[in-house]
Amino acid sequence: MAEFSSILVEWQSSAVSWLNSRVVFSRFMNGRVPSSKRYRLTDYEHAANCATHGLWIIPSLVGGSVLYFLSVDQWQAAAAWLYGAGLSGLFISSTLFHTVAWKIRHLRGAAFPHATCVTHVAIYFFIAASYTPWLMLRELGPWSSHMRWIIWIMAVIGSTYVYYFHERYKLVELLGYVAMGAGPALVILSMADTAGLCELAVGEIFYVVGVAFFKSDGVVPFAHAIWHLFVAMGAATHYYAIWRHLYTPGH
């Protein structure tokens, strides 16, 4: 009997601790909602979402400019321009979207769907832009070279799909992202020059691990902001690989 009472007291203590933690986290996180509904962010989460990508706007603009001024021919310049535009476009559109979702609530009925659409389009073009320097500046085989323009056609198709069927068939959209990421990756892995592949793999790991937080709203406080940080770390790792192996090789 005494042992049962001890277990009961311990269970009650654990329950109280859990409830207290929920009270503390309630300022920073709302409860989880069904997949058919949109999670309602707290003001703290809104601010974190804006900051975690907004802080990367200027570095992405500077980074793209650095690559452009390091270019020694028109191919490097074009690759730098496309990559820089995709990189900065992702952070700018994400920050604007989260700002609209937080501060311009009276416009959300009309503006929110369009803002969401813009961010998803930016993701397609960011994926295409991230692979472009590798596809343009590394030697490819006769068949692999077609991926240089196929990746951008895929981005246009994905963007068109988002415009007409946004969030109607989420699995199809997810498969589109996977196809855009996997196709060029296979081409890059087949390149004779393997310099930079390690950094590319590390960047991909950041993206993959971050997906766990992308789906954890209402479970982990600031889950979406943490996802943003993983995206930023993945993008930074890939930027370093491009700068080191495509624009300053041998230095």
UniProtKB/TrEMBL annotation:
This is Monocyte to macrophage differentiation associated 2. PANTHER family: ADIPOR/PROGESTIN RECEPTOR-RELATED (PTHR20855), MONOCYTE TO MACROPHAGE DIFFERENTIATION FACTOR 2 (PTHR20855:SF137). Belongs to the ADIPOR family. One of its GO terms (cellular component) is membrane. Keywords: Membrane, Transmembrane, Transmembrane helix. InterPro entries: AdipoR/HlyIII-related (IPR004254). It is found in: Membrane. It holds the Pfam family HlyIII. The chain crosses the membrane at residues 47-69, 81-102, 114-134, 146-164, 171-188, 226-243. It comes from the Eukaryota. It is a multi-pass membrane protein. The keyword Transmembrane applies.
